[in-house]
Structures are given as C-alpha cells and as structure tokens.
Design a protein that fits this description.
The complex is a heterodimer of chains A (about 425) and B (about 180).
Chain A lengths: L12 H9 L2 H11 L1 E3 L8 H20 L9 H10 L4 H28 L8 H23 L4 H12 L8 H9 L6 H32 L15 E3 H26 L29 H9 L3 H16 L1 H4 L13 H19 L5 H24 L15 H4 L9 H6 L1
Antiparallel strand pairs in A: 1-2
Helix pairs in contact in A: 2-10, 3-5, 3-9, 3-10, 4-5, 5-6, 5-10, 6-7, 6-9, 11-12, 11-14, 11-15, 14-15
Chain B lengths: L4 H30 L5 H5 L3 E4 L8 E6 L2 E7 L2 H9 L20 E5 L24 E3 L4 E3 L5 E3 L11 E5 L2 E4 L1
Antiparallel strand pairs in B: 1-9, 2-3, 3-4, 5-6, 6-7, 8-9
Classes of the chains: A mainly alpha (about 425), B alpha+beta (about 180).
C-alpha cells in the first residue's frame, strides 16, 4: 500500500478526507476566502455577485415553471394562463421569472457600464471582457426565446421579425431562416425548439460565468482608481468583507425586485402578449423587450434591410474589440477628464436608443434613432481610439493605500503617471 | 536528425487518422443539423384549394397556405389600370403587372411583408392601404401598390406570388 499519509490541513476530518481526494476545499478557501479585493472598491463591484444570484434565481424558477408549461402552439398560451390562475404560487413563479429576467439585464448593464467607466476591459483583463460580452450575447438569445414561449401576439410577431433578420443574408438567408424555424413560418416546430434551447442555454451561461469569474481571479479585480494592487495593504480579504458587502447589496436588491414583483409585475411587460398568437393579424406596433430595444432602434434607423441587419449585429460585435479600440494606458475614467464625459454620454445615448426603439419608427423618433446610431459607432470608432492623443490624464496615485493617506487626494507628484504611461 | 523511413509512414498514418476523424465528425453532425429542417408532414401541407366564387370585385380574402396568409383579390378596373400604367424602371424590384397575374382581375399574393415578415394591412375595406392604394405594412412602413409591388419603405422585394393554378373558373389551387 502507499505510505502516503493523508495530510492534516483542517481540523475537521471529513474536510481532510475530501480535500485529499478532490482539493475543492482549498480552492474555495483561496477564491472566496483569502481572495484579495482592492479596498477602494465601491458598491458597483457588487453587481457581478448580484448577476450570479439573479441567474440562479432564474434557473430555479424556470425549472419549476417548465413543470407546468406545455410547448405546443395549441396549448402554450393556456398553460401559461393555468400557471397564473390555477397552479399554487404559479403567478409568483412566473412574475419572479419574467421580472427576474428584466432585472438580470438591468444588473448586467450596470456591470458592463462599470467595466467601461473604470477601464476593467484593459490589459490584463481583455479575455475577461470578451467572455462577458459572450455572456451578454447568450443572454439576449435566451431572453428572446423565453419571450416566445407564452405564445402571445408579441411572442409570435417578435419571433417572426427577429428570425426574418436572417433572411436578409444574401443567397443562404431564406434557407437559413427555414432551418432555424423548422417550418416556413414560426410554428409548432419553432416553439418546441425554442423551449428546448431556452431550457439549456442558461446552463451554458452558467458555465461561461464560471470562466468569467475564474479569469478575473487570475489578476484580481480592477478598482475605481484603475491601478494595480501593489501590497497587501491595498486589499481586504473576500471573507468576511466582500461577502458581507455583497450580502447587503443583495438585500437591497431583494427589496427593490420584490416591490416590482408584488406591486407592478407587468410594468415591464407588453399588454399585447396577453392576446393569443394570431398568424394572420400583425399588431399595430411590434415592441421588443426594453432590454433589446436599443438594438431594435439601430435596425430600424436604416432604410435598407441588409444594411439595418448588418449594423445591428455590428453594434454588438464591436463590443468584443473594445479592449483594442481603447489606446489609452489609463484605465479609470476618474483620471481621464475628457473621455469620462464621452463615456457618460454613451450611457445616456444607449438609454435614448432604447427609448426610441420602443416607439414607432417615424418622424422625430427616427431622426433621434439615427443621431443615436451615429454616436454609438462614433464613440467606438473615433472617440475611443483617438481621444488619448489630445487628452492629458490626471496624475495617478502611487498605490491604492495612498488614496487614504492624503485624505483621499491623489498623489501630488506626477511619478505615478510616468509609471503607467 | 537523419531521414528515417519510419517517419514518413508515421506522418501518413497520423494525417489519415485525423482526416478520417474530421470527416467522421462532420458526417455525424449532419443528421442533427438536417433534423432541424421542416419535417415531411410539414412539407406535405403544401397545397390548398380555395373557392373564389363569392368574392365580389374590389374585395379580398385571406386564406392560410403553409402557415402563411395568402391574399386573393378581385381587382377593379381602376386598380388594374394603375398597376399597368407604372413605368417599371421606377420600381425597386422591377416586374410587369402581367407577369404577376394569370387572369388580370385576380391577384394572388403571399401576404407577408418581404422586410421582416409582418402581415400588411389593406385586406379589409376599412384598412389603410398606403400611398399606392395596395397594402401597407404597419411594422416598419412599407407601401405596396395594386400589383403587390414594393413602392416605398424598407422592404427589398415585391410581395411574392405563390405557385397557383385555376382548377376551373371558381376554384384556385395554391401550392
């Protein structure tokens, strides 16, 4: 027999027994106990944890909804109404799931904007950013398919419009569309496969989230100053400090989402989706979910089918290359006096695009959408790559703990800046 | 390193194994991809027969064919004149009216906007028919004329004419 005695790392013998065979205990200890977080992180750094928790809530509520849902064109709408009226707490499960999805997007948007403002996508976290955009893309696909399942008018016509985007592709477009739908129009084959994919994709998202977290733990989290950790004094342990902070954030979030679930569960829903799907009547206005509306606004701003589709997919694809578009070495916008305002304008612009994306594409709304579209691409292709040529960044602090020495003031010497640039 | 005759043999074996593996994997994926195309029973629902004897001049009916709405319209004299008078060089998708009908008064169209698949308005007498007196798609504002041709808006093509034939004077077979 092997003379290797089992190492005694922990007091508890069961933990030792597991650790010897699968070193999962020390892994969790390292990643969620000792893991050093920059001590200047604000509450915007809680949104990653919030997003993970919301994803878990969506998966669990979704599994229970699936137990009562029937993915057939004749029965889907009625089965959802049965969940709302007859299944015990079915209404609660469904409102948690539908509002949870909307809040998932709110949280992820704040998480993305935080990454953009503080330059979290820059070296050495580029791959982390790419994984994040990939999660966002999967979220959009999953949310779109989930929206089709209740088989209301918006479900049906939303699915029709979105799958028709693929028919814009020259030569293979029509065949690709038919292949995606499994029929010549959105029908039972489509509903069945959307249900199957809507069930499985969240687990794919969960897997990519695992990679996303593992990647950020390699070089550690970014922080509002956007400078690297230099010593242990710059950090606090994940447990208990960050666990407590994230728990408080979760409690506040729980209060907010509960208020919506119980007092305004349909605030973010379209009333037309309470009308059963009718393939012969198109609703007067097809409105996408608000969290996809900015891209819908871009689609409609172009008076050409293929052009609109290309720009819409391009507006998402361009996010992947942001780490290489930004040529400035300074991460945080706290030290970038000009770019800071362009980033904030980008946030406002994205919000405006979403707003006009939900209104009819005519007159003033169309003009606003076109201006918003120009800024969206101008921000990525002109401002982000070239602003560093005219922008003089503020001097960076030497280290995170220096932020707290001078009463929160930045280092007066320009040495820090020299070091970074 | 000296040329070893065994190396050539090894290279060949490696390359052929990898090739076989790649071809095998591709062949394995094929039935899965193909299973997502329309099934045989879906394809079999390909034809519909429609009685058109009760349609008056200026009226339209909508029937379902392959899950899509098909517009059948008995056009008025003025509508036919309008459709014929158009200079086809002005059109985005140039087609003569005579190429789109079998009998002048009967216009048969797939009622699905070629932009993003909405059903255009214009079938009911009270519907808005757009600037060219044919059909108007409310989703993204495409206007079609009395021959179902695209005249204004984002749609790239005319409303398609489905394959159909007159079985007799009062019956159309679509598909």
């Amino acid at each position: 027999m092997s003379g290797n005695p089992e190492p005694r790392k922990y007091k508890n013998s069961l933990l030792n027994w597991i650790e010897f065979r699968l070193p999962i205990i020390s892994y969790f200890e390292k990643e969620y106990g000792d893991y050093p977080m920059p001590k200047n992180c604000n509450y915007l750094w809680s949104f990653g944890a919030l997003a993970t928790i919301t994803l878990m809530v969506l998966i669990i509520s979704g599994i229970f909804l699936a137990m009562n849902y029937t993915p057939h064109t004749d029965m889907a709408f009625d089965s959802v109404e049965r969940i709302m009226r007859d299944v015990n707490f079915g209404w609660l499960l469904r409102y948690i799931h539908s509002n949870g999805a909307a809040f998932f997007f709110i949280i992820v948007y704040i998480h993305i904007l935080r990454g953009m403002y503080y330059g979290s996508y820059k070296y050495p976290r580029e791959l982390n950013w790419i994984l994040g955009v990939f999660i966002y893309l999967l979220m959009m696909v999953t949310a779109f398919m989930g929206y089709v399942l209740p088989w209301g008018q918006m479900s049906y016509w939303g699915a029709t419009v979105i799958t028709n985007l693929f028919s814009a592709i020259p030569f293979i477009g029509e065949g690709l569309k038919t292949w995606l739908l499994g029929d010549y129009t959105v029908g039972n084959a489509t509903l069945n496969r959307f249900f199957a994919l809507h069930y499985v994709l969240p687990f794919v998202i969960l897997g990519v989230v695992g990679l996303h977290v593992a990647a950020v733990h390699v070089h550690g989290s970014n922080n509002p100053a956007g400078i690297d950790i230099k010593s242990k004094n710059d950090t606090v342990r994940f447990f208990p400090y960050m666990v407590m902070k994230d728990t408080l954030a979760t409690c506040v979030f729980g209060v907010i989402i509960s208020a919506v679930i119980f007092f305004g569960p349909n605030l973010m829903a379209e009333v037309d989706n309470y009308i059963p799907a009718d393939p012969l009547v198109t609703p007067a206005h097809i409105v996408p979910n608000w969290y996809l509306a900015p891209f819908y606004a871009i689609l409609r701003a172009i008076p050409d089918k293929l052009g609109g589709v290309l720009l819409m997919f391009g507006s998402i694809a361009i996010l992947f290359v942001l780490p290489w578009l930004d040529r400035s070495k300074v991460r945080s916008c706290n030290f970038r006096p000009i770019y800071k305002w362009f980033v904030m304008l980008f946030f406002v612009n994205f919000f405006i695009l979403g707003y006009v994306g939900m209104l009819p594409a005519e007159g003033l709304y169309l003009l606003i959408a076109r201006i918003g579209l120009v800024y969206y691409f101008g921000f990525f292709l002109i401002i982000t790559p070239f602003i560093h040529k005219i922008e003089i960044p503020k001097s960076l602090p030497l280290g995170i703990s220096d932020l707290y020495l001078g009463g929160g003031k930045e280092s007066p010497t320009p040495t820090g800046q020299k070091e970074i640039i | 390193m000296a040329e070893n005759p065994d190396n050539k043999r090894r290279d060949f074996l490696q390359l052929s194994t990898i090739t076989l593996g790649a071809v095998g994997s591709a062949a394995f994926i094929w039935p899965f991809l193909k299973s997502m195309n329309p099934a045989e029973d879906t394809l079999a629902l390909g034809t519909t027969e429609v009685d058109i004897s009760s349609i008056e001049e200026g009226q339209s009916i909508t029937v379902k064919w392959r899950g899509k709405p098909v517009f059948i319209r008995k056009r008025t004299e003025t509508e036919i004149e309008e459709a014929k008078a158009v200079n086809i060089l002005d059109l985005k998708d140039p087609e003569q009216d005579v190429d789109r009908v079998k009998k002048e008064e009967w216009l048969v169209l797939v009622g699905v906007c070629t932009h993003l698949g909405c059903v255009p308005l214009g079938q009911k007498l009270t519907d808005t028919k757009g600037e060219y007196n044919g059909w108007y798609c409310p989703c993204h504002g495409s206007h079609y004329d009395t021959s179902g041709r695209i005249r204004k808006g984002p749609a790239p093509e005319n409303l398609p004419v489905p394959p159909y034939s007159f079985l007799n004077d009062t019956t159309i077979k679509i598909g």
